[in-house]
Amino acid sequence: MKKSFASLLSASLLLFAVGMTSLASAEDAAAPAATATAAAPAAEAPAAAPAPAAPAAAAAAPAEAAPAAPVANKGDTAWMMVATLLVIMMSIPGLALFYGGLVRSKNMLSVLMQVMMIFSVIVVLWCIYGYSLAFTEGGAFFGGFDRLFLKGMTPDSMAATFSKGVVIPEFVFLAFQATFAAITCGLIIGSFAERMKFSAVLLFVVIWFTFSYLPVAHMVWFWPGPDAFTDAAAAEKAVAASGWLFQKGALDFAGGTVVHINAAVAGLVGAFVVGKRIGLGKESMAPHSLTLTMVGASLLWVGWFGFNAGSALEANGSAALAFLNTLLATAGAVVSWTLGEWLIKGKPSMLGAASGAVAGLVAITPAAGFVGAMGGLVIGLLAGIVCLWGISGLKRMLGADDSLDVFGVHGVGGALGAMLTGVFASPSLGGTGIYDYVTNAVAPDYSIVGQVWIQFQAVLTTVVLSAVVAFIAFKLVDMIIGLRVSEEEEREGLDISSHGESAYHG
Predict the structure, then answer these.
(1) Which distant-in-sequence residues (6+ apart) come within 8 Å of 56 by Cβ?
(2) Which one, of 349, 348, 347, 383, lies nearest residue 364 by Cα?
(3) Which residue from 84, 186, 175, 85 is spatially nearest to 410, judged by alpha carbons?
(4) Which of 61, 265, 305, 391 is the most exposed place for a label (fewest CB within 10 A)?
(5) H or E stretch including 295?
(6) What is residue 349's DSSP assignment?
(7) Helix (H, G, I), strand (E, B), or coil: what is residue 4?
């Protein structure tokens, strides 16, 4: 443990030194009022960064008043704050209870503690350096240090949305995206639940968040915003300043690649590296409380409306579409998973219904604001069946002890949803198409084959990056402090051996 704390302290001091050096060398000028936002509803349209330089004529006529800066709409701001709260509810208590109910009673509190601590650590790191590296202009793979330690941000700082001239307070956008980063890191622990050291979990998450989550978020979601799309030349410049996968035209409305595939691949790597639970296949590993799992799944579903509909960044028709798709696709997945399980096993289970709900939520996430309602329903129905195979047939093929089926649901469902986004975003199938901010209209040409190829590139990039970073991170943590608890501690249960308390008494 001493080595653990020393390593964490050293990393913190190094980060602080880098941050202070950057701050000391940076100019004291105020940061731009608008910063970049999340995945655009257009694959080839980014831009709402600093306003274009005033023409020479305007400079020669100082008497003319400059255009008023956009003012945040109170309705949009209120909606985004509510959406942020809903995503927090997804993590704590939603994800915590969903995972907690699935483990054995002796490990219940360890899961709750891991989810809560990870959420808190990532929120802190997000505000120190994560937001800056993900959502400021830098390179194609990482952002810069303009917002290190939230430098230059004030209540008057604004962030772009997906409509020209529409903004929200940057503090709200910061908080909303912090919850995405936090729940993504929390998802990973389900793959190696019941056997990993608490200190090792935390150290791994810090490394993986920095070198996998942040670059994927930047590559997929960073763009300067819509207001820079004044003409073709400006649009080209704005695209060049965006994240690498955004430049390619990848569509990810709320996190199919950034959140679900990213986390699931890291979890699968962890399941292989950490190894199987002691007694797997010989002792009962049944969930200790499907009641709590049902409660957790229900909270996830409710909170997911903030996750998906909130990703529109405005209270508008796009948010309404994402809201409906989150409702319909999830219901479809519950139905298809339950019927599939009923046919295969002879009985429908509560665990299956809850898992189906999560599968539908995962699959519709990248597509929520891009596909029509019937496209969303098809995605949900397919997700229930495909993810049922993911936690059974595929899991047996892989041979890993993915304790809570993170890869089978989030990895398989996320990949399915990301690929089908390319299909059902087509206007010919009821989707929204790709919006051209130069002409301020939906682009007339949409290639399903072309977009699916782009989606595949985004999925593959995420899989490779997350797998490599996760493997290196697990090996580093193993060398520094070790990954697993002892056999004696694992048999006793992590609640007592790691935290000195029990979820249940009597």
Answers:
(1) none
(2) 383
(3) 186
(4) 61
(5) helix 290-309
(6) -
(7) helix
- How sure is the predictor about 505, in pLDDT bands with cuts at 50, 70 and 90? confident
What is the rounded average pLDDT of the residues 497-503?
Answer: 96
Q: How far apart are CA 277 and CA 112, in angstroms?
A: 19
The Cα–Cα gap between 312 and 329 comes to 18
Q: What is the pTM of this model?
A: 0.88
Overall average pLDDT of the 392-409 stretch: 96
Instruction: State in Å, rounded, how far the first CA of the chain is from the last one.
Output: 31
Structure tokens given for 186: 């929390």
CA atoms within 13 A on the CB side of 283: 8
pLDDT digits (tens, 9 = 90+) for 106-117: 999 999 999 999
Question: CA-CA distance, 484 to 445, in Å (whole number)?
Answer: 53
Q: What values do phi and psi take at 360, rounded to 5?
A: -65, -40
By CB atoms closer than 10 A (0-12, 13-18, 19+), residue 14 is: exposed
Backbone angles phi, psi at 363, to 5 degrees: -65, -35
Instruction: Identify the pLDDT of residue 69.
Output: 85
- CA-based torsion, 493, 498, 501, 503: positive or negative: negative
Count the residues in the chain: 506
| The two three-digit tokens of residue 300, written as one number | 């996830």
